[in-house]
């Protein structure tokens, strides 16, 4: 199974790559070109970084990547990667992929960024791999226009926002499964097995 990490210059690639290769037969490659990144069986948009800079790296291949997702290319977007699946962000200029309708806004809390473990409520994102708690590191959150795409929620200081979204084989998670111990790795394994089976 070929899994491609799209490198927009700031992603947490090492620990994520390590978590992905816990599934037997997975070959991970890192690709900086957004057009070449979609020549794969599974696309991963990693977390860490700023929306504006990542959107700029994505811009030359935005249409190609969006088209590949619409055609059914499995994709996992993590933290910033999830935010790039939406239309735009208050964090910076540029367009996301617009695969999910909605905007990314600043977390409405006194303590920002949110750093550490937080509950994942009613997770139904990946069959057989539901999370109850996960590790977060974020200042911005996705505000989905269609609540039916939200497959899990979380709350930080009274601000309730999507912990995970899904449409078809495209999943976005605000938490970092690669930093969420064995339950996070099980979530990644469950996603890979489900989308390529």
UniProtKB/TrEMBL annotation:
<keyword id="KW-0315">Glutamine amidotransferase</keyword>
<comment type="subunit">
    <text>Heterodimer of HisH and HisF.</text>
</comment>
<keyword id="KW-0368">Histidine biosynthesis</keyword>
<keyword id="KW-0456">Lyase</keyword>
<comment type="pathway">
    <text>Amino-acid biosynthesis; L-histidine biosynthesis; L-histidine from 5-phospho-alpha-D-ribose 1-diphosphate: step 5/9.</text>
</comment>
<dbReference type="InterPro" id="IPR029062">
    <property type="entry name" value="Class_I_gatase-like"/>
</dbReference>
<feature type="active site">
    <location>
        <position position="176"/>
    </location>
</feature>
<protein>
    <recommendedName>
        <fullName>Imidazole glycerol phosphate synthase subunit HisH</fullName>
        <ecNumber>4.3.2.10</ecNumber>
        <ecNumber>3.5.1.2</ecNumber>
    </recommendedName>
</protein>
<feature type="domain" description="Glutamine amidotransferase">
    <location>
        <begin position="5"/>
        <end position="184"/>
    </location>
</feature>
<dbReference type="Pfam" id="PF00117">
    <property type="entry name" value="GATase"/>
</dbReference>
<feature type="active site" description="Nucleophile">
    <location>
        <position position="79"/>
    </location>
</feature>
<feature type="active site">
    <location>
        <position position="178"/>
    </location>
</feature>
<keyword id="KW-0378">Hydrolase</keyword>
<comment type="function">
    <text>IGPS catalyzes the conversion of PRFAR and glutamine to IGP, AICAR and glutamate. The HisH subunit catalyzes the hydrolysis of glutamine to glutamate and ammonia as part of the synthesis of IGP and AICAR. The resulting ammonia molecule is channeled to the active site of HisF.</text>
</comment>
<dbReference type="InterPro" id="IPR010139">
    <property type="entry name" value="Imidazole-glycPsynth_HisH"/>
</dbReference>
<keyword id="KW-0028">Amino-acid biosynthesis</keyword>
<dbReference type="InterPro" id="IPR017926">
    <property type="entry name" value="GATASE"/>
</dbReference>
<keyword id="KW-0963">Cytoplasm</keyword>
